[in-house]
Amino acid sequence: MAAEILDGTATAKAIKAELTVRVAELRERGIVPGLGTVLVGSDPGSQWYVAGKHKDCAEVGIESIRRDLPEDVTQDELFAVIDELNADPACTGYIVQLPLPKHIDTDAVLERIDPAKDADGLHPTNLGRLVLRVDQPIDTPCRAPRAA
């Protein structure tokens, strides 16, 4: 089996083109997708990742909602932001950028996310459904097939 060079730029372009069409179709039906992000602290890698999500949203027509919180945010203050996004109809899905500061209980944060709005799929319900293959088979392997 010959090695195949993957072109990530071309793949991303194709995915974004398809998403642009799908988002436009949703908008024609009155559904406006909105992706939220919650970023705690100022980790450069996390800031870069979250900024990329918002850039991607803009490119495909998805509304984006950004909530940046200081490193010393309390658990309750973070919960308040999560509750806000859970209740906000303009937010159809969101992520809480990990890792969180050590004083924040990450498990409690992930459990607080509405499973229907869990864009990362990290809520225990969603992870469990994925592991148990509830409702839908997983056809995509997590790795490349082994060479013969």
UniProtKB/TrEMBL annotation:
Highest taxon, organism lineage: Bacteria
Protein's name according to its UniProt entry: methenyltetrahydrofolate cyclohydrolase
Keywords tagged on the record: Amino-acid biosynthesis, Histidine biosynthesis, Hydrolase, Methionine biosynthesis, Multifunctional enzyme, NADP, One-carbon metabolism, Oxidoreductase, Purine biosynthesis
EC number: 3.5.4.9
Residue span(s) of domain Tetrahydrofolate dehydrogenase/cyclohydrolase catalytic: 6-120
Biological process, per Gene Ontology: L-histidine biosynthetic process; methionine biosynthetic process; purine nucleotide biosynthetic process; tetrahydrofolate interconversion
GO terms for cellular component: cytosol
Subunit note: Homodimer.
Species in which this protein is naturally found: Arenivirga flava
One GO MF term: methenyltetrahydrofolate cyclohydrolase activity
UniProt pathway annotation: One-carbon metabolism; tetrahydrofolate interconversion
InterPro entries: Aminoacid_DH-like_N_sf, THF_DH/CycHdrlase, THF_DH/CycHdrlase_cat_dom
